[in-house]
Amino acid sequence: MKKLLNGNLAVSIAVALSKVDVIAAYPITPQTSIIEKLASMCERGEITASFIRTESEHSSMACCFGAALSGARVFTTTSSQGIVLMHEMLHWVSGSRLPVVMVNVSRALGPPWSLWVDHTDSLSQRDTGWIQIYCSNNQEVLDTTIQAFRIAEEINIPVMVNMDGFLLSHTFEPVDVPSAKKVDIYLKRRRKKFEIQKQKSISFGGVTYSDDYYIFRKNLQIDFEKTRDIIEKCEEEFQKIFGRKYGMIEKYSMDDADIVVVTMGSLSGTVKDVIDRVRARDVKAGLLRIRVFNPMPANELRENLGNKKIAVIDRNLSPGKGGIVCQELKSILFDSGTSCRIFGFIGGLGGKDISPSQIEDIILYTYKKERPEKDILWIS
Amino acid sequence: MDKLIGRIQKYSWKDISKDELVYSGHLACAGCGAALAMRIALKALGKDIVIIVPASCWSVIDGIYPFHALKVNFIHTAFETAPSVATGLKRGLIMKGEKKKTVVSWAGDGATFDIGLQALSSAAERNEDIIYICYDNEGYMNTGSQSSSSTPYGATTGTTPATFSRENRKKDIIGIMAAHQIPYIATSSVAFPEDMTRKIIRAKQIKGFRFLHILSPCPVGWGFDSELTVEIARLAVETRLFPLIEIYKGIELCITYEPSGESIRKYLRLQKRFSHLKDKDIRMIQKTVNRNWENLIRNVSIWKKKTEDP
User: Fold this and answer.
1) Does A69 sit within 8 Å of B75, measured CB to CB?
2) If exposure means fewest CB atoms within 10 Å of the residue's CB, which of A202, A316, B149, B200 is most exposed?
3) How far is residue A146 from each of residues A22, A25, A159, A185, A190, measured CA to CA in Å?
4) d(CA A93, CA A73)
């Protein structure tokens, strides 16, 4: 059934349809309406979940860790300062191989205070061992949240779904809401390797000597490499039931493109419009949106970006390094044996608008110049 | 005094279970109060429990992978998270239909008084159905003895050396927990296993957030011979420094053991961490102990009077 939903409502509905057992959360703008909706659903008995009002995001993730150990399906959601506060427990959850699902409503980090979209919050959690997916519209937000439970529970690695604060979280779009019956077919009950309630005496997460620690960490990496196939498998089944598929990357006008704009999140919609506009003037531009940031779809990126001029638009900043997506792309394409050139643009920090004319300038700059004049090209 | 203590059912050593749920191969130091506390506590808690342990001596005492020194389930977690992890686990177990399993947070004083106080307060405020046990060795002993907010006035530690030993008093964690008006609070000591057993059994019978504070002397950190652990724990109680009490709903205060009121000097002089204290310091500490005890008696009297009034 089609409904007019903002991103936050889409998440709440997806979580309700996914039949979570435990929700632990702490309010933060712009995530708040997700947990308000979920709390009211719990109160009215529309969903049978245990809702924990924690005193911090750190404790939210700690509650998720404990709840996931019991075999329950767990969910939390946060933004900005909240995800950064969780940092320690993000490592703890992924290291414990627990399938927690989190929605992060992307928002810039302070100081100075900013309430608006920026991907530095979640990208600075790159090394915590979470699968990270970035959505571009509210339909994708709803679908990805449902997929996230399936992916996480298939391989026991936590999944973070990211959506742009306000641009998606508070913007209404028509969204097709699937029936509960279909979601039940897609999401089976969580299977567990062991059940703490049936064990008599196990110790979980205790001290290890270096040799054992090394094996645990190596196994996490080996399994992480399998996640690409798992995500694809989960997507194929999703397509069979719901008729929609997103892929690791999204491509637009890529077939004959000489210039490729690479970006993440909701900005891609605007980029598509600009591409149509410049193509009318014979500038062969295309778009590649990275949907799954971790694990990076390295093969797809090498395949599609070889021998092209690439304009990366980073809505984030790693001070001292520059754009994070740009750095990642450079490392992936470094030994790809192609002659691609990467132009690293940074813009949209703290929700600063990136206008169609600025995107046009970016494309035309990349079209005209042989190489970028600077490592970081600021969109002003 | 009899009036104040009231009619509390006494336990004897015969009431303590003979099941040993701590294996002998654990990694505690000789004379460790924390190991003794776990041994006595588990006898009362039984097998059908899950223990959550944040960073603490017990993270190590449990053994190194693949060894595990307890006959119960044991979950290690980050320093400040034991009450939150216990909350999540209990809620999850309820949702999975496993309502009876007791979830116990077992944390040191650093995790309780300092880094985990925020999460502890939150779980207590929500009255989560868990038992929180703080084994208090009055400092960060796992990292080689540094001062926590549980370290008493005058003690030397790695971060409060003798020349400027600890100037602040021990944080009143029982007062903090009582202010949360949780269903049950108790203090206990490794020198009084019958009292501890009774309190843990009582805690198990109550629903909601239950807080137990166990004083567990540390031979290494406090500086005494390992055979003196029980003696020192006993002196802490007998000198009225660490009264054995229980508090119901944050107000109903009972003293569960009448201390003989020995001089605090005897307790302090057995420990290296207090060896630099001069007579005037000891007199001052004695004064503080006396004042705290009088306050405690007054609170018991007030409570007794309240219940006697029609």
Assistant:
1) yes
2) A202
3) 15, 18, 11, 12, 13
4) 14
By three-state DSSP, how is residue B160 classified? strand
Residue A377: which H helix or E strand, with range?
A: strand A377-378
A197 contacts B96? CB cut-off 8 A: yes
Partners of B119 on chain A (C-beta within 8 Å) are: 55-56, 58-59, 62
CB A136, CB A265: distance < 8 Å: yes
Could you read off the pLDDT of B280-290 as tens digits, one per residue?
A: 999 999 999 99
Query: Which residue from A161, A28, A36, A35 is spatially nearest to A107, judged by alpha carbons?
Result: A28
From B47, B65, B77, residue closest to A212, measured CB to CB: B65
Helix (H, G, I), strand (E, B) or coil at A122: helix
Residues A166-193 have pLDDT tens digits of 999 999 999 999 999 999 999 988 877 6
Q: CA separation (Å) from A29 to A4, A85, A277, A311?
A: 21, 15, 35, 31
Q: How confident is the model at residue B21 (pLDDT cuts 50, 70, 90)?
A: very high
Residue whose tokens read 């005094």: B1
CA distances from A67 to A29, A101, A253, A272, A367 (A): 25, 12, 45, 42, 52
Radius of gyration of chain B (CA): 19
Residue B287 burial (10 A CB sphere; 0-12, 13-18, 19+): exposed
Residues whose CB falls within 8 Å of the CB of residue A246, separated by 6 or more in sequence, listed in order: A140, A143, A144, A235, A291
- CA-based nearest distance A204→chain B, Å: 5
pLDDT at B309: 63
Per-window interface: B 73-92 vs A, CB < 8 A:
73-78, 80-81, 84-92
Q: Let me know if B126 is exposed, middle or buried by CB neighbors in 10 A (0-12, 13-18, 19+).
A: middle
Closest among A231, A246, A270 to A117, alpha carbons compared? A270
- Separation between Cα atoms, residue B216 and residue B36, nearest integer Å: 8
Chain B interface includes A205 (CB < 8 A): yes
SS3 per residue for A261-327: EEECCCHHHHHHHHHHHHHCCCCCEEEEEECEEECCCHHHHHHHHCCCEEEEEECCCECCCECHHHH
The amino acid at B45:
L
- Does the pLDDT at position A345 exceed 70? yes
Contact B73 A200 (CB under 8 A): yes
Q: What is the mean pLDDT of residues B139-144?
A: 96
CB B103 within 8 A of CB B111: no
3-state class (DSSP) for residue B161: coil
pLDDT at site B166:
82
pLDDT at A189: 84
CB contact under 8 A, B88 and A63: yes
Give residue for tokens 């949240």.
A145
Q: State the pLDDT at residue B13.
A: 84
Instruction: Look at the alpha carbons of B290, B291, B296, B298 in this order and tell me if their dihedral is positive or negative.
Output: positive
Give me the interface pTM, i.e. the ipTM: 0.96
CB A282, CB A259: distance < 8 Å: no
Flag whether pLDDT at A364 surpasses 70: yes
The answer to whether the CB of B248 falls within 8 A of the CB of B184 is yes
Measure Cα distances from A7 to A4, A64, A73, A105, A245 in Å: 10, 22, 22, 9, 18
Cβ within 8 Å, pair B75-A209: no
